[in-house]
Amino acid sequence: MPTYEGRNLQEAIDNGLAELGLARDEVTVDVIAEGKRGFLGFGRKPAVVNINKIEINVDSFNIAVPAPPKHHHHDLPHPHLPGHNPEKVTATAGTATMALVDDPPDPSARPAAGMTNAREQHIEAALAQVSAYVVNVTTALALPTTVKIEKTGRDKWTFFLATDREGLLIGKHGRTINSLQYLAQILFSHLTHSHDTVELNVGNYRERREQILEKLAVKTARDVIASGQPIFLDPMPSFERKVLHATLADNSYVITHSEGDEPKRYVVIERKKGSVI
């Protein structure tokens, strides 16, 4: 088990990341020893950490997506959809089969039946077009992908992308999948004029990323409490910043807020004024 040392925890982590050639959000860090400063050079002990690269399991997929249709994303086809079935609807996205799996409806929040069916069919058509767009883009990137869509929240649709090249589709620091998600959201919002959100997930990347962000929030809060100084995190998308804010929302000693302009907006964690430890 590789370990890395430094005069303090941050230096030990930085040394490990430099040696591994990885970024902070690509690894998990276990603190073995926090280190001691000592007095006049006596009793000093280095901080020691264990750093492991986060591995995303690659499932075996036998379905490949053929070459995309010859049209631009703004000329995406309007597929004919069958009558709505709240349990499951099937359609086609480009040349890849797409399954729309809907959560059971909430009877207390449903409008008139005719209005509901029309809206649902409109949403389904938009989802099919967005799925076709995602398939076309990933195929153009030489990352053949199949898409399954599930309604994972009241106003949230998750596109589960299956590919045998997950690491490349995710990209460094999640930049590729996040950029594709941004474009998919713009297209979906343009087609539906709704406030529903679109999420793209590859394997269990989003779940792993959320765990990393939660650990980062807790660890950074401890550092802020110990030093009394604010810490400015790296820029990240709004949906990731929300994880940090939510994780520390009930913390009695620190507060969080975002600063900067998109796409370089970042989270600041600082001590609450008047907080006593």
From TrEMBL:
Task: Kindly list the places in or outside the cell where this protein is found, as annotated in its UniProt entry.
Answer: Cytoplasm
| InterPro entries per the UniProt record, alphabetical | Jag_KH, Jag_N_dom_sf, KH_dom-like_a/b, KhpB, KhpB_N, R3H_dom, R3H_dom_sf, R3H_KhpB
Query: Which SUPFAM superfamilies is this protein grouped with?
Result: R3H domain (SSF82708)
The terms describing its cellular component in GO are:
cytoplasm
The residues covered by the R3H domain are: 207-273
Q: What is its main location?
A: cytoplasm
- Which branch of life, at top level? Bacteria
User: CDD domains under this entry?
Assistant: KH-II_Jag, R3H_jag
Alphabetized, the UniProt keywords read: Cell shape, Cell wall biogenesis/degradation, Chaperone, Cytoplasm, RNA-binding
Say which family it is in: Belongs to the KhpB RNA-binding protein family.
Q: What is known of its domains?
A: Has an N-terminal Jag-N domain and 2 RNA-binding domains (KH and R3H).
Q: Give the protein's function.
A: A probable RNA chaperone. Forms a complex with KhpA which binds to cellular RNA and controls its expression. Plays a role in peptidoglycan (PG) homeostasis and cell length regulation.
Kindly provide the name given to this protein in its UniProt entry.
RNA-binding protein KhpB
Q: Origin organism of this chain? A: Schleiferilactobacillus harbinensis DSM 16991
**Gene name on record?**
khpB
